[in-house]
Structures are given as C-alpha cells and as structure tokens.
Amino acid sequence: MAVLKRWPLLLVFLALPAFGTELPFQVIAYHDVRDDVAGDYDPDQYAISTANLVDQFTWLRDNGFHPVGIDQIVAAHNGAGTLPPKAVLLTFDDGLASVYTRIYPLLKLFDYPAVVSVVTSWIDSDVAIAYADKTLRREDFLTREQLREMQSSGLVEIASHSHDLHQGIRGNPQGNLQPAAITRLYDGAAYESEAAYRDRIRRDLATSVRKITDLTGRAPRVITWPYGAVNDIAESIAAEQGMEVSLTLNTKFVSTPESL
Prior knowledge:
Layout: E1 10-14, E2 25-30, E3 33-34, E4 48-49, H1 50-62, E5 66-67, H2 70-77, E6 87-93, H3 98-110, E7 114-118, E8 129-131, E9 134-136, H4 144-152, E10 156-160, E11 168-170, E12 177-179, H5 194-216, E13 222-224, H6 232-240, E14 245-249
Parallel strand pairs: 2-6, 3-4, 5-6, 6-7, 7-10, 13-14
Antiparallel strand pairs: 1-2, 1-14, 8-9, 11-12
Helix pairs in contact: 1-3, 5-6
C-alpha cells in the first residue's frame, strides 16, 4: 500500500518526574506537507504529500486508532480518565505554513487533535532559514493569526520546538556541528562551562515560552526537542519553564503501521 511508503518516524513520550507513569499510546511525528513531494528522491525526506496524509489519517481511522490530545493524556496520567485503545498523539514539527494550509483542514475534517511545535525565532521573523535544499523565509512559516486560530479551535496544542536551538553548534576542536540543545559549545579555545550551558538553555526556553504566550495567549506545556536531542539537564530546565511533557525522536522505538 502506498500509505506505508512514507510513514513518519514515531516519537517516544519521555517520562519526567511529573509524568513518570507509562501510558499506552504512540506518537507520530510529521513535518512538511506538500503537493510536489518527489517520493524517495525528495531532498526533504520528512515531507509527505497531502494525498498521502489523507491516506494515513484514513488508515488510522479504519484500523481502530484514536488520535488523542494532551488534555486526555494528562487526565489519564492523573487518574481522571483512561486513554482509548490504540491511542495516538499526532505531532507536526517546525511551524511550517503547510500546517495551516494543508494539515489544519484535515484535522478539522477528521476531528483529530494534534500538537504543533514551533521554533519561535522562525515565527514572525525575517530571518532566512536553510531547510532541506531550500531557503525559507517569513512567508513559509505560520503567522500569529494562524497560531491563535488553530489553538482556539480546541484541536491544536501549540508546543515549543525551542527558540533558537534548531541548529548545530561547534562541539569540538575539529569543528563538528552538533545539536545545540545538548552540546557544550566549543568557542575555538575552550568548552562552555556547565553553568554557561545551563544559562544558554534556560534563556532559550524562557524566550520560547514568552513568545508562544504572546503569540497565542497560552504558555506551552509541551516541548518537542529539535533533532530529538535532549539530556537530563535540558529536560529539567524545560520542566522548570512549565513544559513537563517532553517529546523526542528515538529510533530504538520506530515502528511500522503493522506493528502499532
């Protein structure tokens, strides 16, 4: 079936102190949705077509899966309810414009809740972003009005994807770029101290929380880590900022639809 050819990676729900109980659900991570995806040869291997997303949503519905929202997950964790069988959390990363133009209409059509994770330095900004083989600009990302509309619908939870950690930074004398959220920056002479590292992560996440609150009127309670890269320090800082639901890519738990 074509629907299985570009099924996205699964995410793993990370257990923080406030969320130490494992709950029976899967998390599926999506990124861009475009109508010109060139299959296995597309430079953006995380992108899928609108038709493929429709097929996947239909597959989930027809095979007894139940997309759930963060409210349901939190309630189940707190003992105030239970998740339905085959519960699935749908997430869409990076805050691309296709979330509003292609994904949001389908969420409304299927009545599926989802998490949309935004990099706040990319929203309402004129900065040029290298993304796959393209340079993206302000018009390629969600707007303040779109974010507010989607969140007010009750279907979309706006999450942080950091403020400016969605990049690689120099991590050693050889000049290798490594995920900014977990790397001690090497400035050419010395490594960043733990105190400086903690301060950098704290300032970034605090900025993200402040901007999302300003954009949507609600502080985020979910953090989706860029590149799936997270450590205990970053996770604890996110929790301090009110984001106690933490999502990360982990290939050890990647599944196909047949094994869900």
